[in-house]
Design brief:
With about 700 residues, the protein is an alpha/beta fold. It has 3 domains: about 130 residues, Chitobiase, domain 2; about 350 residues, TIM Barrel (Alpha-Beta Barrel); about 200 residues, no CATH class. The chain has 26 helices and 14 strands. The strands form 2 sheets. The protein has an 8-stranded parallel beta barrel with strand order 7-8-9-10-11-12-13-14.
Length: about 700
């Protein structure tokens, strides 16, 4: 039996071809062949929509004019950009299917959805119709580039060749398309010398003409490939930083990207002219680049909010206005909060800037803490004035930064759903997902040449992470069944539901730690390593969260009681109503960790692919159990300090020694050594990371408690 696929679109794009290939593959799994017809007239489509489709025919419409001519039923008039309807008709034996959308992105997503539904239904007759709207118009991945990079570490140096390889980007962009991301944001300190040679400052670009030509080919192809897949591209840089070559040839006092990025400003009319010229040429020479953005703060410490905004207007806004085509804009919320100044600037210039996405870091650098907005960049207060009153010329876009787990796979769909439900107000345009300290290129963490490895790049190893965020940002009502189906298909198993449950339980650990242990910027927490550091400890490897650290910390989430607060209430016999106590958190961690381990035992089947996934779940579970036992030990020690009861001091040691906390860390070391090697980690500077590195400090906690005996 042959299915005819009719694609009625403005043009036959790469993105739609990828989606149609997925659909054709799904049909082949049902034993059906397929043929394609590239277009159809309005009259043909009108007949089809009235119910006169040929048997076993599928029609994909991605053109608003055609939809209007076809006089669709009311349901399809509800379609918005990037939304789609799958409509079904036909007899009990044969089926006809329509995928209706207003635009090409909607058609791509609709065809991808149809392919999934064909696989799930295992027949055309049983396909479930649907009407799915895009929840957010902005669904972005944050990608830090390894050159002129904001952070500097071996883990970035390792990625240069990979990120410069267009074959990497082809696969990365395909992943984005399949997961419904529509925006790629590329971040580095100073991108211009890698992209343009300005007329008045030619020596600011250090490359020969041939070298610059190679770079221009790279960027042109990257932006083209993204556009063909319905993905917008933005470049985001950091304000008053210039190239090293500019400083050498034009201004030796200028701040270039070899210096530390954080500090006071240095600006001249020449620097303004160079940056403005670079912006104009960037827009002119790369027509497929969608937008531009700027980060305010790092090299503006000594400037007033008014001066910061004026600099952006004079350089960035004026440069964008002077270009021959409009370009979209990402405006990071300034670190020094004065929303009235930024709002007024955007409103006064909105005609040249629309649309504007105002980026705000959600819970600073550690969004995997709480779905409740408790903190923004810089720990600043008053940030809510960016959205209250409701903005009319921009939308808030939440930056979901992950600086907490780079090696272990993470999957917790309910956390994402809660996040979207709590933070999807009318003034919100969408989300960015990504990291400042990790590039998902080559996977340098896993032991090479292992039978576990069935991926080329780190983002492919973490495919479920990207799928969860992308699919749920497009449609938060996406069922877990979709993810279960993918787990079954990719890992050749039949118990994907069990595996997703195990992930969901074990992967609560980083949010639990970040809710309980206070943090701020990037390196102040790394949940999968049970690490926290600051400037004084950077490059020393002294980052392990000791028992003493846990005792002294205050919770990030105010609904949690610190250990000292809890014991104080306990001694005073005060009610704990409305608070989560350390022992309640410990009990939850223990339940989730043990439940996940029980499921792992049920799923073990000696398949290396599945074994690698299960090992990560075991690792998260051991971290959960270690954290739980350490909380119990800390409570016991604080009780001993308050009451002098030697039984409490002995209890603290009991919870830290094997078979409790120390044993869990030893099991964590054992399971991770089977898969992972020592690796560079931005949080530790030059010290290579492994879980084994911190085993001595696990035992130092025991000696610390023993030393508390009075």
């Amino acid at each position: 039996m042959t299915v005819q696929i009719v694609a009625a679109t403005a043009h036959n794009s790469t993105g739609l071809n990828i989606a149609l290939q997925k659909l054709e593959s799904a049909l082949r799994e049902l034993g059906l062949s397929s043929t394609r017809k590239s277009s159809a007239t309005a009259s043909e489509l009108h007949e089809a929509i009235k119910g006169n489709l040929s048997e076993n025919e599928m029609i994909i419409i991605a053109d608003q004019a055609l939809l209007d001519q076809c006089k669709l039923a009311p349901a399809s008039h509800q379609l918005a950009p990037e939304s789609f309807e799958i409509r079904k008709g036909g007899s009990s034996i044969n089926a006809q299917v329509l995928v209706l959308s207003l635009d090409e992105r909607g058609a791509i997503y609709g065809v991808l959805e149809l392919a999934e539904r064909v696989k799930a239904a295992k027949s055309l007759v049983n396909i479930e119709p649907c009407l799915i709207h895009a929840r957010f118009p902005f669904r972005a991945l944050k990608f830090n580039l390894p050159w002129s990079s904001y952070r500097k570490n071996e883990c970035f140096e390792l990625q240069h060749n990979c990120v410069k390889d267009l074959s990497f980007w082809e696969q990365f962009l395909n992943m984005m398309l399949e997961n419904r991301y529509n925006t790629l944001t590329l971040w580095n300190l100073h991108p211009f010398p890698f992209m343009v040679r300005t007329q008045n400052f030619p020596l600011a670009t250090p490359f020969s003409d041939a070298e610059l030509s190679e770079w221009k080919h790279y960027w042109t192809e990257l932006f083209r490939m993204a556009k063909e897949r319905g993905i917008e591209t933005y470049l985001i840089n950091w304000n008053i930083i210039v190239s090293e070559a500019f400083a050498e040839h034009y201004d030796q006092h200028a701040i270039h990207d070899q210096y530390y990025h954080y500090g006071d400003s240095y600006s001249t009319n020449q620097i303004k002219q160079y940056t403005k010229e670079s912006i104009i040429q960037l827009i002119e020479e790369y027509p497929d680049l969608t937008g531009f953005g700027v980060s305010l703060g790092e090299r503006m410490n000594d400037m007033t909010p008014e001066a910061i905004q004026q600099w952006i207007e004079d350089v960035y806004f004026e440069g964008m206005k002077a270009a021959s085509r409009p370009i979209k804009f990402i405006h990071r919320a300034p670190f020094t909060v004065d929303p009235a100044i930024t709002r007024a600037s955007i409103e006064q210039n909105h005609a040249a800037l629309e649309p504007v996405w105002l980026e705000v870091k959600f819970n600073w650098s550690h969004a995997y803490s709480s779905p409740q907005l408790l903190l923004t960049h810089g720990g600043s207060k008053g940030m809510e004035a960016y959205w209250n009153p409701m903005p009319t010329n921009y939308k808030i876009t939440w930056m979901v930064r992950n600086e907490d787990f780079f090696t272990l796979r993470w999957a917790q769909p309910d956390f994402i759903r809660d996040h979207i439900r709590m933070n999807g107000q009318e003034y919100v345009g969408g989300y960015y997902v990504g990291s400042e300290c990790f590039i998902p290129g080559i996977d340098y963490s896993h032991i090479p040449d292992s039978p576990h490895i069935h991926w080329d790049y780190a983002f492919q190893k973490n495919w479920l992470y990207y799928m969860l965020w992308g699919r749920l940002l497009h449609n938060p009502d996406t069922s877990d069944d979709v993810f279960v189906q993918q787990l079954n298909e990719r890992l050749h198993i039949s118990k994907g539901d069990k595996l997703l449950t195990a992930y969901s339980k074990a992967c609560k650990m980083p949010m639990a730690l970040a809710s309980f242990y206070h943090f701020s910027w990037d390196f102040t927490l790394y949940a999968e390593g049970f690490l926290a550091t600051d400037e004084s400890e950077y490059n020393k490897g002294k980052a392990f969260i000791s028992l003493e650290d846990l005792l002294e910390s205050r919770p990030f989430n105010p609904t949690y009681l610190s250990i000292k607060q809890y014991v104080d209430k306990l001694v005073r016999e005060e009610a704990m109503d409305g608070f989560i106590t350390p022992l309640e958190l410990a009990s939850e961690l223990e339940t989730d960790g043990q439940d996940a381990l029980t499921i792992v035992v049920e799923l073990l089947n000696n398949d290396p692919r599945l074994d690698c996934e299960l090992s990560d779940i075991i690792a998260w579970s051991q971290l959960s159990l270690y954290f739980a036992k350490k909380l119990r030990a800390a409570v016991s020690l604080e009780c001993y300090r308050r009451t002098g009861n030697k039984a409490d001091q002995q209890a603290a040691i009991y919870w830290l020694e094997p078979p409790h906390a120390a044993a869990h860390w030893e099991r964590l070391v054992a399971v991770t050594k089977l898969h992972y090697r020592v690796q560079p980690l931005m949080h530790l500077g030059k010290t290579l990371f492994s879980w084994e590195l911190f085993l001595p400090q696990v035992y130092e906690d025991i000696e610390y408690v023993r030393g508390q005996i009075v």
